[in-house]
Amino acid sequence: MTELLLVRHGETEDNVRQIMQGQTHGRLTAHGRQQAEALAQQLSSKKIDVLVSSDLQRAIDTAVIIGAPHHLPLVTTPLLRERDWGGFTGRFIPDLKDEKWPDDVETMAQLMARSRDFIDFVLTHYAGCCVVAVGHGIINKAIQAVYHKKPIHEVPRMGNAEVRTLIFSH
């Protein structure tokens, strides 16, 4: 059995400002660091074998805080990056409601393929382990959609520093 604890990064400055972060690095707020510290405390007695993170700074910072009690090295991967929002990146989210999507936004097919690749990565390299993986809202929803074999819009939104557990039987 492989246990995947899928975590969304802590609150960022751009979350608060409603800015489309996409694949920018982002910075945790003081509250975001507190969220990660609370999750670290919650997971401190759990046996964790591997700590994996998106290679974007907001996820790395969250993962480092969560992993501190376990003294594990951090493995980063671009597979866990947030969806690439192309020309929408850096924009005020409420302003995007009725805009035509730019051609450079990562497609749903690409996002779902990346999610399957991440699951394959975990099962290939960390079978039988408990893996904490710190990602982002949309990529985490896509991973859960693949796992549950359902459309992404049916997966509930994850809050900052929320964790969801996925179990893979071998």
Report on the architecture of this protein.
- This protein has 170 residues and is α/β, with parallel strands linked by helices.
- The chain has 5 helices and 5 strands, in the order βααβαβαβαβ.
- The longest helix has 18 residues, at 108-125.
- It is globular and about 45 Å long.
Q: By helix and strand content, what is the structural category? A: alpha/beta
**How many DSSP E strands?**
5
- What topology, given as strand order, has the largest sheet? 3-2-4-1-5
The level of helicity is 25-40%
Tell me the series of helices and strands, N- to C-terminal: EHHEHEHEHE
Number of H- or I-type helical stretches:
5
Mean pLDDT: 97
pLDDT < 50 stretches: none
**Distance separating the two termini:** 6 Å
Strand count, sense and barrel status of the largest sheet are: 5 strands, mixed
Query: What is the percentage of strand-forming residues?
Result: 15-25%
Given the C-alpha coordinates, what overall shape results?
Answer: globular
Radius of gyration: 15 Å
Oligomer: single chain
